[in-house]
Amino acid sequence: MQKPAPPPPAPNNKRQTFRQDVEVPIEMRVQNMPVTVHGTLMDMSAEGCRIRSLISLEKDSALRFDVRGGNGKALELRGRIAARKKIVGQAFYEYGIAFDKISTADSDALVSLIMEFQRRAAADRTETKDAAVENAKPGKQRGAYRALVSFPIKYRREGRPGVTIAEANDLSAGGLRIIGNEPMPADVILTLEFTLPQEVLSVYSSAPTADPSPFGDRGIARPKPKDPRRPFEPMTIRGKVAARLKDSSGQIVLGVQFLDADAYTREEIQRYIHAVQLYKIRTGVDNL
Question: Per residue, what are the HEC states of 45-98?
């Protein structure tokens, strides 16, 4: 039976264009206001943000405010109020802010800040999940679902220069298998470099999902922040050789345990594994 042709690649949606939920207090300097205005930054993207405040502000007013990342450095953002909404039954207003055009350096800093907020949110979700598992009834369970896949991987062995090319498969959020030609004892530390294959993301709808915009009706729907179609980015993860496994082909198969995969990276791997499961179900293809 002929293997079906692979689906077209997923749309090139960049993560920095998505809107990330946050909850950060800010102080705004608003046009024609003699004092600073307190508010809460509710979400943000590379194009704008949403702010909640008890103070009534005029539409089209220019404003600026600072946001600090984990390094403590302040990034000043400037923009205009593109939309305002009085929340029924509440004492506050919500404002959609369109950012002014900023320099390349500030744009890069803004994207990095959004990514930092994404990682913080992922870490919070992981802590909540870990706490739930800890409180669950006792019983030995496998740590994570593993996907039987195949993709190229590079690794650097600690204490040795150079990069080695190998094949990765049997992937989970906690580790993977490496198929290659180099025997290694347990506990060897590796730095793994790879990008998860994008083609499986085509199982998700290519049509954007409708999502209300604080800027009003733009004529098109805006993808949600957790759009599963966003491309995978290159990953670099440290791992430890946990075991050498038997393989009938005569190749060397090593089980590698991840050492420092952060919460966001683990979520991205889980997103890939979920897409693989859907892809296999819908196409009938067992091997990827």
Answer: CCCEEEEEECCCCCCCCEEEEEEECCCCCEEEEEEEEEEEEECCCCCCEEEEEE
